[in-house]
Design goal:
The protein has one helix and four strands. 10% of the residues lie in helices and 40% in strands. It has one domain (2-72). By secondary structure, the chain is mainly beta. It has a four-stranded antiparallel β-sheet. The longest helix is centred in the middle third of the chain and has 9 residues, at 40-48. β1 (2-14) and β2 form a beta hairpin.
Amino acid sequence: MNLEVTVSHVQKTCQGCYQNSREKETHQFSTYLLIRDGQLQRNLQKTFATPKKSSAPCRSCGAGEVWKRRNLGTQSLYLVMVFAATPI
């Protein structure tokens, strides 16, 4: 199964000055996934939308404690699966 997840933008939050910034980012991640016990949505959120520390400092105050979070283009409870079938 081939699944594509689109990241619409990245939100960055500075822990020093609490300034929020948004950066456009549109990527498509294609991967082969094995669905087991309905864990697909939870695994996607954990992989792509978990906040992570940014390596770049804050543009406003220069602090190094900036967290970024990707917002997934897929916001629904159900994901659209794309199957590629070859006729026999």
